[in-house]
C-alpha cells in the first residue's frame, strides 16, 4: 500500500464518522462535510490504487 491509498481510506472513514455524527445530532452541515470527505477519500484511494497498479505492471517487465 502506498501513502495515497492509506490517506484516502482514512479520509473516507473520517467522512463516514462525520456523516453518522451529523445524522445523530441532526446536522445537515456535518452530514454534508462527511459526504464530501468520503468523496475526497475515495478519489485519493483510487489514485493510490492506480499508482500501485502501474508500479506492479512495471515490476513485471
Report on this structure.
By secondary structure, the protein is mostly helical. The chain has one domain. Helices cover 90% and strands 0% of the residues. The chain is built from 2 helices and no strands. Helix 1 packs antiparallel against helix 2. The longest helix is centred in the last third of the chain and has 33 residues. The mean pLDDT is 97.
Task: Briefly summarize what is shown.
This protein is mostly helical and 61 residues long. The chain has two helices and no strands. It has helices at residues 3-24, 28-60.
Sheet-strand content, in percent, reads: under 5%
The stretches of 5 or more residues where confidence is low (pLDDT under 50) are: none
Distance between the termini: 20 Å
What is the radius of gyration?
A: 15 Å
Question: Helix coverage percent of residues?
Answer: over 70%
Query: What form results from the Cα inertia axes?
Result: rod-shaped
Count of separate structural domains: 1
How would you summarize the topology of this molecule?
Layout: H1 3-24, H2 28-60
Keywords:
61 residues, mainly alpha, 2 helices, 90% helix, UPF0337_stress_rsp, CsbD, YjbJ_sf
Amino acid at each position: 500500500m502506498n501513502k495515497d491509498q492509506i490517506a484516502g481510506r482514512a479520509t473516507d472513514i473520517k467522512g463516514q464518522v462525520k456523516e453518522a455524527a451529523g445524522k445523530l445530532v441532526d446536522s445537515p452541515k456535518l452530514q454534508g462535510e462527511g459526504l464530501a470527505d468520503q468523496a475526497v477519500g475515495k478519489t485519493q484511494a483510487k489514485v493510490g490504487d492506480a499508482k500501485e497498479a502501474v508500479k506492479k505492471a512495471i515490476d513485471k517487465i
